[in-house]
Design brief:
Keywords: Kinase, Transferase, Two-component regulatory system
Number of domains: 3
Protein name: GAF domain-containing protein
Radius of gyration: 29 Å
GO cellular component, one term: membrane
Strand content: 15-25%
CATH topology of the largest domain: Heat Shock Protein 90
Bound molecules: adenosine-5'-triphosphate, magnesium ion
Pfam families: GAF_2 (PF13185), HATPase_c (PF02518), HisKA_3 (PF07730)
Number of helices: 7
InterPro entries: GAF, GAF-like_dom_sf, HATPase_C_sf, HATPase_dom, Sensor_HK_TwoCompSys, Sig_transdc_His_kin_sub3_dim/P
Helix content: 40-55%
Number of strands: 10
């Protein structure tokens, strides 16, 4: 990494433990050469002024070879000899350079394979999540509606009570499935990515389906201030809002704002997500499922969610405003 130097992460030596973790600091002369893709040959590591790590004095002649593939430097292969050992010959140098090129290729291939496997898993999980959302939840909803109209139709209080219970059960089941969907959609590697990256990833994915890129604005130090639990929930809310805008709004413009300098009604510091579109606007009445769910998520964190007019001409469209403590 250009900003952080190079760290020794693997060593084949008698005492690898004493080498691993050694850092070649950023902007050292050797590092600049290596990052430019050029090998560095040193006649004596112990005395060469370019060798500035605390382990260099233990070695004699050294070769430092960039592991480069497709113009990207993945790391460095260091091949040192004992102090006083003969220098590397031209033949040895060129052999080592070729070996480094092949090693880099092997690293890239292994990486690509790993990515492909991960992608396959995610695609599968996505499909399951989509099926649960589009098929199972919608059907449970429809069943709930049928039951509710049956309840209104009966004049037997006992029957009405039982039907009411069944509807509650269905609601609880839907909530559980939603939690499972949410878990399925979490990328295990995603926990390391900051809020900013994750927001941009979501809007990027939505852009492909929408045919235009939502605008995104960040206010304040969103990565540093917002905790993991709130981040996860905010991403779920953003995903729901974008999916609504895509499916219901017919919008031509979407503006996403993440403001880490907001406050809650009580004065508690908070993060506010706003997703505004210029589409047809929310119907006044009607069922709320995804929206109700994201409001519940906000409230569970001690926050709030509300919706109102969006950014269409004359106050048209929908804006969702989702706030939770940092
Ligand atoms: N951005 C929007 N623009 C216009 N109408 C919307 C928008 N978001 C939601 N709606 C309307 O509000 C209704 C409720 O939205 P909600 O997200 O709660 O449920 P849903 O999207 O229909 O179902 P689910 O979220 O479970 O897939 C939608 O059915 C749709 O009619
Ligand atoms: Mg929805």
């Amino acid at each position: 990494d250009e900003g952080r130097g190079l760290e020794i992460v693997a060593a084949a030596a008698d005492e690898p433990g004493t080498l691993i973790g050694t850092v070649i600091p950023p902007h050292s002369p050797v590092l600049d050469e290596l990052l430019a893709g050029r090998p560095v040959f040193v006649d004596d590591s112990a005395t060469d002024p370019r060798m500035i790590t605390q382990v260099a004095w233990r070695f004699g002649p050294s070769m430092l070879l960039p592991l480069e593939s497709g113009g990207r430097v993945l790391g460095t292969l260091a091949v040192p000899r004992e102090p006083g050992a003969p220098r590397f010959s031209e033949a040895e140098k060129s052999l080592a350079a070729r070996f480094a090129a092949q090693a880099a290729l092997a690293l890239v291939m292994a990486d690509a394979l790993h990515d492909r496997e991960r992608l396959a898993v995610y695609e599968d999980r996505d499909r399951i999540a989509r099926d649960l959302h589009d098929l199972v939840i919608q059907r449970l909803f429809a069943t709930g509606m049928t039951l509710q109209s049956a309840r209104r139709a009966t004049c037997e209080p006992e029957v009405a009570g039982r039907i009411g219970q069944a509807v509650d059960e269905l609601d609880a089941t839907i909530a559980e499935i939603r939690t499972a969907i949410f878990a399925l959609q979490q990328d295990p590697g995603e926990a390391q990515a900051g809020l900013r990256t994750r927001v941009l990833r979501e809007t990027g994915i939505a852009a492909a389906a929408l045919g235009f890129q939502p605008s995104v604005r960040f206010v304040g130090a969103v990565d540093a201030r917002v905790g993991e639990r709130t981040t996860k929930n905010l991403i779920a809310a953003l995903r729901e809002a974008l999916s609504n805008a895509l499916r219901h709004a017919g919008a031509s413009r979407i503006e996403v704002t993440v403001d880490a300098t907001a406050t809650l009604a009580g004065g508690c510091p908070a993060v506010r997500l706003t997703v505004a579109d210029d589409g047809v606007g929310l119907p006044r009445e009607g069922r709320r499922s995804g929206l109700a769910n994201l409001r519940r998520r906000a409230e569970r964190l001690g926050g709030a969610a509300r919706w109102g007019p969006g950014i269409g001409a004359a106050g048209g469209g929908t804006a969702l405003c989702w706030t939770a403590p940092l």
